[in-house]
Amino acid sequence: MRIYLVTPRNPPSFWTYDDILPSIGKRCLFPNLSMPTIAGLTPPEHEMILCDENVEDVDFDIDADIVGITGYLVHSERVWELAAAFRRRGRFVVIGGPFASLCPEQLRGHCDVLFVDEAEETWPEFLRDFAAGTWRAEYRPAEKPDLSSAPTPRFDLLKVDRYHAMTVQFARGCPYTCEFCDIIVVYGRKPRAKRVEQVLAEVEACHRLGARQIFLVDDNFIGNRKLAKALLTELAAWNAARGYPIHFQTEVTLNVAQDDECLALLRAANFSTIFVGIESPRAASLVGARKLQNLRDDLVTSVHKIQSFGIQVQAGMIVGFDDDDASIFEEQIEFLAAARIPVAMIGMLQAMPKTPLHARVAAAGRLAGGTIGDALVSSNIIPLRMTRPELFRGYRQLIAQSYDFASFYRRALEFLLRAGRVERRRRPNATDVRLFGRVLWMTLIRATPRRAWFTVRLLLTILVRRPQMFESALALAVAHKALHGYVRRVCLHLDGLIDQLEREEAASASPPAFDEAPRESSGPLPLTMSARTEHLLLPADELRGSA
Ligand code: B12
Ligand code: SF4
Q1: Helix, strand, or coil here: 502?
Q2: Ligand 1: nearest atom to the Cα of 10
């Protein structure tokens, strides 16, 4: 059989880096791992073709027996469109992925077969059923799959050179119980890991294909700390033996700061950045969200501890918890500055379907529509200690301030000057030199005077005061270019939403609450639903005062 697997194009988001990818010669930051994973699970007698719409065009006329589509909630509209287009052409369409696992009810009727949850067992089962003509309309595993026998994903089917970094997964699931988290709803609380040899084989495969950066896409890399340490020990040996060809990054919980051995291993294995869900500087909000693992030590001390090992912390932050009032925005700004966190993904609290938070706010009549799956552009909760316009206005101010030139510069510089030293550095090769040229072209030579001054000042200061951090300074200059443009566009988008909310508030004494409904339903559109995000793709220089 011939099977065509499609990843839909990403709507603009914090992670799409639309403003800089063309300049660095890439089409997308990371490949979606689900497609190579599904291809790896497919017996070799079938022909697999992978298409990622982020790096190539979809071939709607392809002669395929099965078309498989993946996606997150943010891809929902494109998933529906793709499925309809292929079905119109008589193709047999199957859908799986985080959107299908969390909201199967929104996909039934849009495909021939729906895969809910992980597909390590159900995909091969379906292929056998399909060949026998006895397939079912829906597949859902009886138990969460054991990953210790998962085959290596077919990275070789990806157009690797079009991505900035590759993605590899070690474990799924997280032992914690954060109230807003949909990950534990779908992947469970018991971390399930691959064996060290499996991960090494995957890293080796990506390295052979030319990868120089790998994102270990675990929900929480230290969910099972013993296994994580065993893997890190081997990754450190692997990287050292080859002269550190790979930079790793991953996602962990903040309590990694209380484990010096783990931090030393992360450094030894060449993890340059970790993404940490810090969420809030306010203890009451963390308690309310059941994010108790963040309360084991002072937050700023914990972040500094991680940085002292030469590892950059990128933070996930959230506003709009029940204990957040209008003073939370300033508190967040102060925290990011004190903790020296240049890059923070700041969002508004979202009630994702099926989470305990969703059930609680719905029961309290505080649900304001469904979610578009991106906490940076909307919120579907009526806050407790603020009005909705107050939340949206405060949030808008918070993100604008966090990514203005001056604040970002201060945080970046503080981090670069004070982070721990990592002695070893890979010797630059021709690709590095080319990349360096492209970055300077984008952030200096072809930039606005303000952007050029920002870049010169940051790079020269670091060259003079801490030259060994030059590569990190360059990366932060690039990140700011991407995020500043994106945040400016989100602010314009929020301005529209705030106007709409204020008009609604003026029209009625109390803000309207809407029932949760599938997005394609008719009737009045709640704010979060009408908040289309296509205009977030406008070039940065079309924005008022943008640089
Ligand atoms: C790595 C990651 C990223 C990376 C890489 C994204 C990428 N290119 O794929 C980055 C950092 C860029 C990212 C960004 C975002 N992410 Co993200 N991300 C993840 C993370 C941690 C791992 C995803 C992964 O690679 N999993 C490994 C694969 C193998 O697992 P899988 O996709 O579930 O696939 C299995 C099954 O679902 C099934 N399957 C999947 N597809 C298909 C298709 C078919 C045909 C079949 C049969 C089966 C099948 O089989 C697979 C094997 O079992 C998840 C958390 C999680 N555990 O899912 C969040 C997650 C997917 N991200 C999420 C979100 C919200 C985002 C952002 C919107 C955040 C933002 N505001 O910017 C952006 C969107 C970016 C975009 N793509 O447009 C949410 C999505 C919620 C949802 N249910 O839709 C998740 C679940 C995390 C969360 N709860 O917050 N993300
Ligand atoms: S630590 Fe992260 S992955 Fe784990 S439950 Fe909390 S939010 Fe979810």
Answers
A1: helix
A2: 78
Q: What is the pLDDT of residues 382-441, one digit of tens each?
A: 999 999 999 999 999 999 999 999 999 999 999 999 999 876 666 777 877 888 888 888
Among 39, 65, 42, 41, which residue's Cα sits nearest to residue 51?
A: 39
**CATH node for 165-310:** 3.30.750.210
Give the number of C-alpha atoms closer than 13 A to the C-alpha of residue 144, restricted to the C-beta side. 16
Q: Is the CB of 352 under 6 A from ligand 2?
A: no
For the chain, the domains span 2-139, 165-310, 312-420+430-547
pTM: 0.93
CA of 358 from ligand 2 middle (Å) equals 16
In tens, the pLDDT along 432-486 reads 788 888 888 888 888 999 999 999 999 999 999 999 999 999 999 999 999 999 9
Q: Cβ–Cβ contacts within 10 Å for residue 35, how many?
A: 24
2-139: CATH topology is Rossmann fold (3.40.50)
Contact (CB, 8 A) for 30 and 163: yes
Ligand 1 site residues, Cβ closer than 6 angstroms: 10, 13-16, 29-30, 32-34, 37-38, 68, 70, 72-74, 94-99, 101-102, 115, 118-120, 123, 167, 169, 172, 182-183, 187, 217, 219, 373-376
Q: What type of residue is 155?
A: F
What sign does the CA torsion over 8, 345, 275, 482 have? positive
CA of 315 to the centre of ligand 2 (A): 13
